[in-house]
Design brief:
Growth Hormone, Chain: A, 2 domains, two-stranded antiparallel sheet, 19 helices, globular
């Protein structure tokens, strides 16, 4: 069925299926780049000789820090200025930056373009979900959000597999693969994705100072997480960065309460499912990020797998994600949201416990890694789409981009925490020590985080009347300008 809408005076043909495909593909592309570079790390280092491991780590860290820092500010701007404008701008920036990454003549050029790539991803990710919420009737929102989230989860879990295949040709293909997808998303988005009802005319911008404070605070926190193992957790640098994070959080909280157009409406945080989904998203992403890296490092460093073999070994897990996301959708009307996420988290915990108990230094993939990969994929498929659906379906449509940005930021911070915790555990082992003992400690920590996620998930179940009454009073931006102050 084809419908027509007016987009800034231009007739736009709207096809719900194409709209969903474009928005999912774009979000998938952005999520992929958080993880796809992992298996290309060694090859990038060989092309830039003389770079230290610390310098090379910024290829990963620059993306993670900028992405986390800008999600909420750009999501809030999308809710004020219009999600379609922000979405198309984000896709354009991401696509151009991806091409620039592949053409980088030096390491620090690559790091700079990765930061620009992350800015584009931070703009398009919340805007794409905001557009999806605006274009979908309330009755179909949960299903649409699950599909959108499952595509992102599949990208995150499948990133190493795709990266391993691409690296066989050249590490540049890890970035070039985004270019045709981005160009198609721009063309199809402009033609088929309907604009939401918001526009820049007469709309007050969110708190400018508060936006800057939030971006800097999340950026400093992310920097502390990724550099903590190198600095030392009790070092002067780490303590100063943590103090700056706390100070920034206090200033931002004050701005949220006092400013007439805050970046995050206080009532948003009083929606039960939204608040709990953020907590669960952080815990589950901590486990997910750490386990993905641990499995890759184990297969490459201990079992001696190549990048492409590692990618193929990881692949069975992502194949389970859409299957179990569909199962979660089918049982959602009979089983509570919290129960679905708790079961997914428990499956993930069992997957990492199996690794801790059964994995040995002699490769036995079918008996040791494969069962864990299948269980973890099932857990991701049940948990991740349900977390995001629960976080956003109770929110007003004009807060969709901001809401999705907050929960995505929580997940990104969780991922960074998980990676930092794993690196700290592995770094604590002596060079001549038992590699399995260090990895086993990491896998048990991951298991604990997944079990905490399962417990916290029980608080996610919506109290419909309560959440509806709170969400109904989430304010929108007034139609007059507001001075920052």
């Amino acid at each position: 069925m084809v419908k027509h809408s007016q987009d800034m005076g231009v007739a736009v043909a709207t096809r719900p299926g194409i709209t969903l495909l474009v928005l999912c593909a774009s979000a998938c592309m952005a999520g992929l780049d958080v993880f796809i570079v992992n298996v290309a790390f060694d090859d990038i280092g060989r092309d830039f000789p003389g770079s230290s491991l610390g310098d090379l780590s910024w290829v990963l860290n620059a993306y993670a820090i900028v992405y986390a820092a800008l999600l909420v500010p750009l999501g809030s701007l999308a809710d004020r200025l219009g999600s379609k404008r922000m979405f198309l701008a984000g896709v354009a920036v991401f696509t151009v930056a991806s091409a620039a990454c592949a053409a980088s003549p030096g390491l620090w050029h690559l790091v700079t373009f990765r930061a620009l790539q992350a800015a584009g991803a931070a703009a398009l990710t919340p805007a794409s979900l905001g557009l999806l919420l605006a274009a979908t009737p309330t009755s179909g929102r949960a299903r649409a959000v699950r599909i959108w989230s499952a595509s992102g989860a599949l990208a995150a879990a499948g990133g190493p597999a795709l990266g391993g295949l691409l690296v066989e040709s050249s590490w540049q293909w890890v970035f070039l693969v985004n270019v045709p997808v981005g160009v198609l998303a721009l063309a199809a988005g402009a033609r088929y994705v309907p604009a939401d009802s918001r526009g820049a005319s007469g709309r007050a911008l969110p708190d400018i100072l508060g936006t800057a404070v939030l971006a800097v605070t999340v950026g400093v926190l992310s920097l502390t997480i990724v550099k903590g193992p190198d600095w030392g957790w009790a070092s002067k640098e780490t303590l100063l960065a943590l103090a700056a994070t706390v100070a920034g959080a206090l200033v931002f909280a004050s701005r949220v309460v006092r400013h007439p157009v805050p970046v995050i409406a206080p009532a948003l945080l009083r929606v039960r499912t939204f608040a709990w989904s953020n907590a669960v998203g952080l815990l589950f992403s901590l486990a997910f990020g750490a386990n993905l890296l641990a499995s890759i490092l184990w297969m490459q460093q201990t079992w001696g797998y190549s990048a492409v073999r590692t990618g193929l070994a990881v692949a069975p897990g992502p194949l389970m994600v859409p299957v179990f996301a569909a199962i979660g959708q089918r049982v959602a009307h009979r089983v509570s949201t919290g129960t679905i996420v708790a079961v997914g988290s428990a499956l993930y915990a069992s997957a990492t416990a199996l690794l801790a108990l059964r994995t040995g230094t002699t490769p036995h993939y079918a008996a040791e890694m494969l069962p864990s990969s299948l269980l973890s994929g099932a857990g991701v498929g049940l948990a991740m789409p349900t977390i995001l659906a629960a976080a956003t379906t109770d929110l007003p449509a004009d807060q969709g981009a901001t809401g999705s940005a907050v929960v995505t930021m929580s997940r990104q911070i969780g991922t960074s925490l998980g990676v930092a915790a794993l690196v700290a555990v592995l770094a604590s082992a002596s060079p001549t020590g038992d590699a399995h003992a260090a990895f086993a400690r990491g896998w048990w920590i991951i298991t604990g985080a997944a079990l905490l996620s399962a417990l916290a998930a029980l608080g996610m179940t919506s109290r419909t009347s309560e959440d509806a009454s709170v969400a109904a009073v989430v304010p929108t931006a007034p139609d007059v300008g507001v001075k920052d102050g």
